[in-house]
Design brief:
- It is globular and about 40 Å long.
- Strand 2 and strand 3 form a beta hairpin.
- A 4-stranded antiparallel sheet has the order 1-4-2-3, with helices on one face.
- By secondary structure, the chain is an alpha+beta fold.
- 27% of the residues lie in helices and 42% in strands.
- The chain has one domain.
- Helix 1 packs antiparallel against helix 2.
- The chain starts with a strand and ends in a 5-residue tail after the last strand.
Length: 90
C-alpha cells in the first residue's frame, strides 16, 4: 500500500508562454491541480485535474487560459502534484 503526498511547485511565466507551459505540465502527469495567479498573487484560474483528463476534456480550459494569457503580462503557475510514497511496512 502507498500513501499519496502532495508537492507544490511554482513557476513564473510570461503571458504568451502560459498555454504552452500548461500543456507541458499536463503531459508530465501526476498533477492534481493547477492554479494560475497574477503578478500580485491573486488567483485567476484554478483547474482541478483528475486521472484521464486530457485532450478534448482539457480543451475548454486551455481556451480560457489562452484568453487569460492575452490579458496578463506575467503570471505564476502553482502546480500541486501527487507523489506516491512506498509503504514502509515491509
Amino acid at each position: 500500500m502507498s500513501e499519496a503526498k502532495d508537492r507544490v511547485e511554482e513557476f513564473e511565466v510570461k503571458g504568451e508562454e502560459l498555454v504552452g507551459r500548461i500543456k507541458e505540465l499536463v503531459h508530465e502527469g501526476n498533477i492534481r491541480r493547477i492554479i494560475i495567479k497574477d503578478s500580485d498573487g491573486k488567483t485567476l484560474v484554478e483547474i482541478p485535474l483528475t486521472i484521464g483528463v486530457v485532450g478534448a476534456l482539457l480543451a475548454p480550459a486551455l481556451a480560457a487560459i489562452g484568453a487569460l494569457a492575452a490579458l496578463v503580462a506575467e503570471c505564476k503557475i502553482t502546480v500541486v502534484r501527487t507523489d506516491a510514497e512506498p509503504d514502509s511496512r515491509d
